[in-house]
Write a structure and sequence with these properties.
By secondary structure, this protein is of the alpha/beta class. The chain contains 13 helices and 18 strands. The strands form 4 sheets. Strands 1, 2, 3, 4, 5, 16, 17 and 18 form an 8-stranded mixed β-sheet that branches. Strands 6-7-8-9 form a 4-stranded parallel β-sheet.
C-alpha cells in the first residue's frame, strides 16, 4: 500500500526542509515531497497498491529516528529483552533504525552471532536492526575480532561497550583496522582502575550517602587517550554516553584541532543528576553514573554548540532480579527507547536546541556516523518516517511499555510530545491508539 502524508510540518535537516508539506510514498520509498500533492498523485498502474492517506495537520513529520546505541540482550539474556520486544519498544519511541551493542551471550564477536541477530530482526520485520560487533574477542580486551568478516556478515561498527578497552596498543590497532574499512570505533571511555568499586558519581552526594564514588576523571582520562590515538592514526572515533563536563571540553578542543571525533550523550545525562539518588533507587544506577548539576549543564551546552553530535538511548534492559536488590549489588542500566523523544523534546522547550537541531541529533547525525542510508526524507530513499504530535502531553507508565523490562526512573513523569505513527519502508508499523 502506498502512502500520502498530508499537511504536516516536514522537518528534514538533510535537505534544509522545515515547512508544511505533503509526502508521497510509493513502493516503500519516498517518491515526492511538495505542497498539495493530490490524493491521486500515486502513479497509475494495474499493479499499484491502494493509497492510504494520513492527515498530519498540526503534526511533525520527521525522518525516522535512529538510535545508535541500544542493548537488545538477545542472544543469551532473553528474559531481559529480545530483538522483537526491543524492536517494538523502538517503534513506540519513534525509532525506525537501531544499532545494538555486542554484550550478548555469546558476545557478538563472530559472524554466526551477527548473522543470527540479522535473521531474528528480519523474522520480526519491525525496525531496521544494525549489529555493532565487539572490538575484542569476548570483549575481553586481549585480541581483535575479525573486522572484515564481521562487516561482511552485516556489522556496522565496533565497540566493547560495557567494558573499556584498557590497552592503548589494542585501541590503536582497532582504530587503524576499522579505519581501513571506513567504519567507526565506538569507545566506552572508562579507566577501570579509577572507577573500580564505585557505585555513583564521586562527590558531595556520594559522601553524604556513604557510597563509594566513580570520579569524573575515570571517563575523561580515556576520552583524552582515545582522542590522542585517533589524532595520531587519523581515524574516526566515536565516544559513547558522554557524561562529564571535562569530556565535553576535551571533545570540543579535539574537534577544533580537526580530530575526526564524534560523540553522543543520553537523555538521562541531561535530565537527571546525582542528587536524584538520595533514596538509593536502583533504577538510577548506571555506568557512567549520573553526574553533578554542573556536568548536566555542560552536557546541554555541548549539545547546543554541536560538540555532542547525537542523542542515543543507551537502552539497557534489566529484570527485577538484577534491580530489586541492595544498591551495591544492583546491575547498571536503564531503559530508554520509549522515553527518549519525550525527554529530548524538553531541550527544545528550554531553548537548548531547535526542532531541526534535535532531529539532526536523533536521526541524521547517528545515520551519518554509522554510514547508514537513513535519517533523510530525500526522494528515492527508504520511507522511514516518524510522525509526532508535539503538543500531546502524556504520563510515563512503565506498565504499558513494549520493552520486556521496566527499569526506568521516569515512571510518573509528564512529558510533552508523543509518537503518533512510526513508518518503516513505507509500512505503518506503529500507531498510537490512545
Amino acid at each position: 500500500m502506498n502512502l500520502l502524508i498530508k499537511g504536516g510540518r516536514v522537518i528534514d535537516p538533510s535537505q534544509g526542509l522545515d515547512a508544511k508539506m505533503d509526502i508521497l510514498v510509493e513502493n516503500g520509498k519516498i517518491s515526492k515531497i511538495g505542497k498539495s500533492i493530490p490524493d491521486g498523485g500515486a502513479k497509475a498502474s494495474k499493479k499499484a497498491s491502494a493509497l492510504q492517506v494520513i492527515d498530519a495537520c498540526n503534526l511533525l513529520v520527521l525522518p525516522g529516528l535512529v538510535d545508535m546505541h541500544t542493548h537488545l540482550r538477545e542472544p543469551g539474556y532473553e528474559y531481559k529483552e529480545t530483538i522483537e520486544t526491543g524492536s517494538e519498544a523502538a517503534l513506540a519511541g519513534g525509532f525506525t533504525s537501531i544499532a545494538c551493542m555486542p554484550n550478548t551471550d555469546p558476545t557478538n564477536d563472530n559472524r554466526s552471532v551477527t548473522e543470527f541477530i540479522i535473521r531474528q530482526a528480519a523474522k520480526c520485520g519491525l525496525v531496521n536492526v544494525y549489529p555493532v560487533a565487539a572490538i575484542s574477542k569476548g570483549s575481553e580486551g586481549k585480541g581483535l575480532t575479525e573486522f572484515g568478516d564481521l562487516l561482511e556478515a552485516g556489522a556496522v561498527a565496533f565497540s566493547d561497550d560495557g567494558k573499556p578497552v584498557m590497552a592503548g596498543g589494542l585501541m590503536r590497532r582497532a582504530l587503524e583496522y576499522a579505519g581501513s574499512f571506513g567504519v567507526p570505533i565506538i569507545s566506552h571511555c572508562e579507566d577501570a582502575t579509577l572507577s573500580a568499586g564505585g557505585l555513583m558519581n564521586e562527590g558531595l552526594t556520594s559522601t553524604e550517602l556513604g557510597l563509594p564514588g566513580i570520579p569524573s576523571i575515570s571517563e575523561e582520562v580515556m576520552v583524552a587517550r582515545d582522542i590522542l590515538i585517533a589524532a595520531y592514526t587519523e581515524t574516526a572515533l566515536h565516544i559513547a554516553h558522554v557524561s562529564t563536563a571535562g569530556s565535553v571540553d576535551l571533545i570540543r578542543d579535539a574537534k577544533k584541532r580537526g580530530v575526526r571525533v564524534t560523540a553522543e550523550t543520553a537523555p538521562h545525562y541531561f535530565c537527571l543528576s546525582e542528587e536524584a539518588l538520595t533514596e538509593f533507587d536502583t533504577r538510577l544506577k548506571m555506568n557512567p553514573p549520573l553526574r553533578s548539576t554542573a556536568d548536566v549543564a555542560a552536557i546541554k551546552k555541548g549539545l547546543r554548540d554541536g560538540t555532542l553530535d547525537a542523542i542515543a538511548t543507551d537502552h539497557a534492559p534489566q529484570s527485577s532480579i538484577e534491580k530489586e536488590v541492595e544498591f551495591e549489588y544492583a546491575a547498571n542500566g536503564i531503559i530508554g527507547l520509549e522515553t527518549s523523544l519525550g525527554l529530548s523534546l524538553r531541550l527544545v522547550e528550554e531553548g537548548i536546541l531547535t526542532l531541526p537541531q534535535l532531529v539532526e541529533k536523533m536521526s541524521l547525525n547517528p545515520a551519518k556516523i554509522l554510514r547508514l542510508k537513513k535519517g533523510t526524507l530525500k526522494p528515492g530513499t527508504d520511507a522511514d518516517i516518524t510522525i509526532i504530535d508535539p503538543e500531546k502531553a502524556w504520563i510515563v507508565d512503565v506498565k504499558k511499555f513494549r520493552s520486556k523490562s521496566r527499569n526506568s526512573p521516569f515512571g510518573g513523569w509528564q512529558l510533552k510530545g508523543k509518537v503518533i505513527h512510526t513508518i518503516v519502508a513505507g509500512v505503518v508499523k506503529f500507531t498510537d491508539r490512545e
